[in-house]
Amino acid sequence: MKKYEKIINDIILKIQTGIFKEGEQLYTEKEIKEIYNVSSTTAVRVLNELESAGYIFRIQGKGSFVNKTLVNKKVFVTENNNFHKHFKESVSEHSEVVEAEIIQDKELCSKLKLKNQKLLKVARIKYIGNVAWAHQTNYIPIKYLPDVNIDDMDSFKELATMIRKKYRIDIHQEKSKKNMKVIVDTPEEIANFIAKDGDPCFEFDRYTYFADGKIFEYVKIFINYKYYSLTIKD
């Protein structure tokens, strides 16, 4: 185990055992350097990893604070699309592909923990009847999808099905992580499809993982608030 990982585990243990309580200020970068005898680079990485994992939040000019978190607590989560509140049962779902291309983007590759590589980008609008309720963009390293045909737009309407049949990768059976927040400033190019009246949206960043921990895809999803709810039970 690397030094920064040992420090992270030690701080997480202190949070879990109540040495650092919810809302309390955590070690500063300087304190981490002094307590654990590490460089500034390592101290910064520790804080970044703890923030990314949801254990802390940071306030510019004030420091890092312990988050109220459900990390490592066993809960049952149910996602609902709430369609029954707005549509008749006879109304069907479908997707429209608005973009399919091969791109290179360093920032997106960093999300996938890759060096700069070619990625498949597929953007879709999801409809229930004639109402657009979600905008989803998938980014997948081309190395996992050899010979993919970006001209066959119809095959991307059901992207997961195409990947399962052609590449024998079942996305829905792989582990994933999803970060969610509510936004009121949905990007205009997205809002024009799913939030024309200025409705708030849920914004998701989802990662799908292979069994060895490598990231298969990064997905950006926007859902109109009317068509999503989340139930958490412990």
UniProtKB/TrEMBL annotation:
Gene3D superfamilies: Chorismate lyase-like, Winged helix-like DNA-binding domain superfamily/Winged helix DNA-binding domain
Keyword annotations: DNA-binding, Transcription, Transcription regulation
One Pfam family hit: UTRA
The UniProt record lists the keyword Transcription regulation: yes
GO molecular function, one term: DNA-binding transcription factor activity
InterPro entries: Bact_HTH_transcr_reg, Chorismate_lyase_/UTRA_dom_sf, Tscrpt_reg_HTH_GntR, UTRA, WH-like_DNA-bd_sf, WH_DNA-bd_sf
Gene Ontology BP annotations: negative regulation of DNA-templated transcription
HTH gntR-type domain location: 1-69
Name of the protein: Transcriptional regulator, GntR family
